[in-house]
């Protein structure tokens, strides 16, 4: 999932990258809303989200009872080749989208 957000592969999710994904999901957040989303989990205050911060963000989106380990296990369901990334093909395999 992280690689779907991190379009340039630099290990950081910017407001621009977050906005691109949000818009692809039918959302239309403002620049300030995107910055607020990043600021909520940006532990090192560098203005972007790295992978540990991404896990924090996803954990907050999930039920309070879901632990980080449960989220990692759910990630593994999508990451079929265990390379640490979820490709579009892997996402389609688990969640088929209508064409």
Automatic annotation (TrEMBL):
Q: Which CDD domains match?
A: EFh
Q: Which organism is it from?
A: Aspergillus sp
What region holds the EF-hand domain?
1-28, 29-64, 66-99
> What are the annotated GO cellular component locations?
myosin II complex
Record SUPFAM superfamilies: EF-hand
Alphabetized Pfam families for the sequence:
EF-hand_6, EF-hand_7
What Gene Ontology molecular-function terms does this entry list? calcium ion binding
Per UniProt, which keywords does this protein have? Calcium, Repeat
What is this protein identified as? Calmodulin
Q: Which gene encodes it?
A: cam
Which PROSITE patterns does this UniProt record tie to the protein?
EF_HAND_1 (PS00018), EF_HAND_2 (PS50222)
